[in-house]
Amino acid sequence: VQMQASGGGLVQAGGSLRLSCASSGSIASNNAMRWYRQAPGKQRDLVAGITIGGSTKYGDSVKGRFTISRDNAKNVLYLQMDNLQPEDTAVYYCNAVRYMSAERYEYWGQGTQVTVSS
User: Fold this and answer.
1) CA separation for the pair 117, 101 (Å, rounded)
2) 33 pairs with which residues across the strands?
3) N or C: more exposed end of the chain, with fewer CB within 10 A?
4) Average pLDDT over residues 60-83
């Protein structure tokens, strides 16, 4: 399975972007899908996650501004980012975890750069 993230770019503070993560395989059976981000010199942090049942969770810094969703029919994970702030600048990575026959499989996208100017 390969995952391709896209949708990053340069935006002014207060603006919006929508990230997409297209999977080469079906995402319907992925137990969890997540977006992470990593700013220069910092660790990779969880931004948002969504379970196979549709439950979502968000990092404290993005609650109320970001929305994660998944389209199982199109095999795409999304991250709608509104009211972007300079501190949201980072490389964003998509991630998927699947459990099959007691084995855990994890997949990562290649990352997409988001830059927010003040």
Assistant:
1) 46
2) 50, 96
3) C
4) 97
